[in-house]
Design brief:
The protein is α/β, with parallel strands linked by helices. It has 13 helices and five strands.
Length: 357
Amino acid sequence: MYIIMEAIPTLLYLIISCTTTLLLCVNAKSNAAYFPKIDAIYQFGDSISDTGNMLMQAGNVGCAMSPYGETFFHHPTGRCSDGLLMVDHIARALRLPLVDPYLARSGNFTHGANFAVAGATALDLSFLAAKKITAVGTSSSLLVQLGWFKSHLSKICANPSAQRQKLRNALFIVGGIGGDDYNSGGLAGQNLEDLRRLVPDVVQAISNVVKEVINLGARRIIVPGSFPVGCQPICTSGSRNGDPSHDDLGCLKSWNDFAAFHNSQLQGAILSIQQQNPSVKVVYGDYFSALYSLLRNAPALGFDPNALYTPCCSMCGSPAGTSCPNPSSRVSWDGIHMTQHAYQYVANRLLRQIRKM
């Protein structure tokens, strides 16, 4: 390559370089044209989507400690990954700025706001307490996040008409959320059958927020389901050794069946909301299938097939946390959350749906 380039006259080389640059710019604009007009993103959820609210609430703990954030930002930002989250990848694809956390005092909310908080539950803490479940994370439940959104909207828009106009071209992402409700129930001693009885309440809480933002003027909403939690590293110890409790990828069947049950209930609720609001696009975000697709095609996607369930970050969330040499080769970042590379794959699947909205 270098020999050939040296043989090209300088002028011709410059022409080729400029032409290539122009084509790349045109292609980028063409890709942006595939999406509907979206000028803002409003995100609700938990640690899968939190871009810094927990950092504002709790300070330098957990995902606010090194080596979180090292790949893209080169320092912790409160994101529970080595770099960008799915909402970040989506914002970049839509050619929008990264969405600032709502609690950031110096945040720029011209193009949306992120209300997600690591550890957030779909159900309010008082509801969980009535079922003898103590939430292990933040008190900033989905209902609290909705309150933040309403307060934010009232500050930037003078009246309901202006609010609806502001939200006309916005994308809402409500979730994923619910995992911390189930985690809290499990820590309270509930088994899978007990947790199944909690699913309708979790789904109703998510549905209520979706309906509320529609009433306020939202027209495009993605409601993500659950990842196949049985594929988390803590669940995959019996991988591919003939253990009947695990599937062919080494994922724990019982927990994935539970996640599939949650997703089925959620899809039913989304369908009902869509039927009641035909002028609004309400789309289910299929995290479950996306992760399974990633795992089945891991080598072709650049992931190390021998470390699919090995977290890159060891002792993350403590001062002793260290990361692997190449985070982009790993699916799992810290044993719970995924790497920037893995999140990009799932985000790309969501972007296919956004193109149709």
